[in-house]
Amino acid sequence: MIEAITIKQYQLMRNALGYGFGKTNNHRNYFVAFLDGDDYQEWMKLVGAGFATRHSCDAESEVGVTFSVDKNGMAFFEDYIHIQNRILEIEKERDQLSDELNEA
68 is in which domain, residue-wise? Predict the structure, then answer.
């Protein structure tokens, strides 16, 4: 199992889970990737890591594949978000302390 994901993989998982666009929690869990696209390769790495599931192609087109973030992927994603938010909080605290020291 991998211990890190790339920024691209984070963005794909975020998109699949429906985060963003003013949403603070997930409201879906799917992403359709073209078979010949870069997203497909990244999703397959997430599948290999045990973070996502690959679903069957559309029987008529077989152009795209649907992926979903699985339980392990969701846990990893939530931890990743928590860590990123904590880093932002620490940086804000650091900046505030720096401002206070500069004023003294």
Answer: 7-103
